[in-house]
Amino acid sequence: MLTLLQIILAPVVLISACGLLCLALYNRLSTIISRARAFHRELFDVQTQLARIGNSDEDVVAQIQNRIEILNGQTGQLIARAAQIRNAIACLLLTVVSMLVCSLLLAALALLADPNQIATGIAFMIAGPQHVVVYAAGCVFVLGILLMIAAMAFAITELSRALDPVYVEYHEMIEPETRIE
After folding, report:
1. DSSP label at residue 104
2. Residue 42 counted as domain residue
3. How many domains does the chain have?
C-alpha cells in the first residue's frame, strides 16, 4: 500500500511546484503588461506633443520621432516577452492537467488492483490486467514532465531578454559620441 501511495503522491508534488511557478510567472506577466501600458501612455503623450509643435523646430521633432521609434521598439520587445510568459504559464497549466489525469489513472489502478497484491508493489500491475492503466499513467506523467520542461524553456527565454529594454534606455541616455559599443 505504501508503494502505491508514494506513486500517487508524485504528481501531487509536481502540481504544487507548478502552482508556485505559475504564481511567479503571473506576477511577472502583470509587471510586463503594466510596463507596456506605461509605454503606450508615453507614446500617446509624445505623439500629442509632436502634433502640437508641428514642424516648427526640426531638432525637437527629430528627438520626438527618435523617442517614438524607441518606444515602439520597446513595446514590441515587451509584447514578445509577455508571449513567452503566457506560453510558460499555458505549459504549466497543461502540466497540472496532466498530473491530475495521472493521479486519476493511478487512483483507478488502486481500485482495479487486488488489495492483497498492492502490498507487493507496482511490479504486479505491469504483468497483470492493469498494465494498460499503468502505461497510460506513465505516458501522461512523462507528458506532464515534458510540458514542465517546455514551460521552463519559455521562462528562461523571457528571462534572458528581461534587460533588453533597460539596455535600450541606457544607450539612449548616453550621448552618441560617448557611447561604448
Report:
1. H
2. yes
3. 1
Structural domain includes residue 12:
yes
Q: Which helix (H) or strand (E) holds 3?
A: helix 2-53
Residue 100 forms part of a structural domain:
yes
Q: Do residues 161 and 81 lie in contact, with contact meaning Cβ atoms separated by under 8 Å?
A: yes
Q: Is residue 16 part of a domain?
A: yes
For residue 159, give its domain range: 2-171
Question: pTM, whole model, 2 decimals?
Answer: 0.78
Long-range contacts of 9-16 (CB under 8 A, 24+ apart): 10/141, 11/99, 11/100, 11/102, 11/103, 11/106, 11/141, 11/144, 12/99, 12/103, 14/95, 14/99, 14/144, 14/145, 14/148, 15/96, 15/99, 15/100
Burial class (CB in 10 A: 0-12, 13-18, 19+), 120: exposed
Q: What is the pLDDT along the chain (181 residues), one digit of tens a residue?
A: 556 667 777 888 899 999 999 999 999 999 999 999 999 999 999 989 888 887 777 888 888 888 888 889 889 999 999 999 999 999 999 999 999 999 888 888 777 766 665 555 555 555 566 777 778 888 999 999 999 999 999 999 999 888 887 787 777 767 555 544 4
